[in-house]
Amino acid sequence: MPLTLVIGNKNYSSWSFRPWIAMKIAGIPFAEELVPFETPEFRERVTGRLGGKVPVLLDGDVQIWESLAIIEYLAETFPAAGLWPKDKATRAHARAIANEMHAGFGPLRGHLPMNFSRPVRKRALTPEVEANVARIEAIFAECRQRYGGPFLCGAFSAADAMYAPVVSRLHTYDVAVSAGTRASMHAMMALPAWQEWWAAARKETWVFAEDEVDWPNVLRMV
To answer: Could you report the per-residue pLDDT of 8-19, keeping only the tens digit for each?
Structure first.
């Protein structure tokens, strides 16, 4: 039985984006089931039977939620896929920054929600969001210094998957970043998997008002 990844709207669901892009780039075959937020289908399928959250990975009778837990399950199930770096020290570093993303950066998440359909346009940052951006830039800079790029640990890994929605946020809200960070963003955004998700997100017509922030719904470009 093939794996099934249950996801929310591609335009908004940053947590769904993480395992999706990891699986695509690792070449792990899966079926995709998109359940739109705030619909009867979501309430029946996700809230009613899958614990109330997306993404959820279904592998036969096994059900895994939370993006990082899904990625760890996939890394164990498909060791040849290379989701984590082979070198022990590099792998530990990748896991540390992935966990930091999973647990932190709340101000940035709330102030700059992922929204692929929003026209690129600046939004004023709070001091807390500026601090989050500075920390992300420091992570990117340290990784470039250690591993040389183009991705966080050299080759694409699960750590990059965890930061993929952040790249989207920095781009969408035209956040001022260093040339090095911009180069890392461009490498991520050039990936065919990124382009596939982006194109699908732009075609969606569902509007999740909570994540539209300062852009009127009537002007959304879908």
So the answer is: 999 999 999 999
Structure tokens at 122: 């600046």
Domains defined for the chain, CATH in brackets: 3-81 (3.40.30.10), 88-199 (1.20.1050.10)
pLDDT tens profile 49-85: 666 778 999 999 999 999 999 999 999 999 999 999 9
The helix/strand count (H/E) of the chain reads as 10, 4
162, 164, 171, 140: which is closest to 153 by C-alpha?
140
Question: What are the E-state strand segments in 39-137?
Answer: 56-59, 62-65
d(CA 181, CA 185): 6
SS3 119: coil
pTM assigned to the model: 0.90
Positive or negative: CA dihedral 65, 70, 76, 80: positive
